[in-house]
Inverse folding.
């Protein structure tokens, strides 16, 4: 017998998969996608630190690819990457 918890978990996984298919995300969807709270995303948009659109002047939308690029900024290099770069310049 399928439990209510299992059904809920499956629905959540399906919702997350659907998010990966959408190009534009609402504030709520962007929060789910990034793991940040809606209030934090709203704060970032107010400070213009996060790319977003407001087509009708009210609701906020995010381009999923732009969110991914924003999340990937300021990458911290691994020790191995740093060592490889150092070795390259030793030659």
């Amino acid at each position: 017998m399928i439990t209510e918890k299992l059904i809920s978990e499956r629905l959540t996984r399906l919702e997350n998969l659907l998010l990966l298919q959408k190009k534009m995300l609402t504030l709520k969807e962007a929060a789910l996608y990034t793991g940040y709270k809606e209030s934090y995303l709203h704060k970032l948009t107010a400070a213009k630190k996060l790319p977003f659109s407001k087509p009708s002047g009210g609701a906020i939308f995010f381009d999923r690819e732009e969110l991914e690029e924003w999340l990937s900024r300021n990458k911290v290099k691994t020790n191995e990457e740093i060592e490889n770069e150092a070795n390259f310049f030793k030659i």
